[in-house]
Amino acid sequence: MIEIWLNPACSKCRTAESELKAAGVEYTVRRYLDEPPTVAELENVLARLGLEPWDIARTADAGRLGVTLPAKDTTHRRDWLEAMVDHPRLIQRPILTASDGTTVVGRDPESLSRVIAASDM
C-alpha cells in the first residue's frame, strides 16, 4: 500500500497516480492542500527522505504566497516546518510513501519505480 500526497492540478501528481494505477498498486490519496500535514508528519517524511524542510520546499512559490522564508539552517528548521504546514503549497509534490517506509518525492520515473517496487515487498 502506498500513500500519495498530491495536488490534482499538478501534472507530476497526475503522472504519479497514473503510474500507480498502471502498476496495479493499492494506494490512498491525501490531498495535502485540503488536509495539510502536521509538523510531526512532515518530520516523519523528512526523516524517511533523509532531507531537510528546505530540500522539499517550492521556494519559488513563497513570493506568490506572501511568505518570507527563513535561512536554510538548523536554527530555523522549525520555522520552515511551520511555514509548510501553514502554506502547504510550499511542499514539493507528489510525495509517496510505501508501507515499508520507502518515501520519495515522485517527480521522476526512477523515484516512482523505487516506491512501486517497495510496495510489492
UniProtKB/TrEMBL annotation:
PROSITE patterns (UniProt xref): ARSC
Transmembrane stretches, start-end: none
InterPro entries according to UniProt: Arsenate_reductase-like, Thioredoxin-like_sf
Any Pfam family: ArsC
Gene3D superfamilies, alphabetized: Glutaredoxin (3.40.30.10)
Recorded superkingdom: Bacteria
Family: Belongs to the ArsC family.
Protein's recorded name: Arsenate reductase family protein
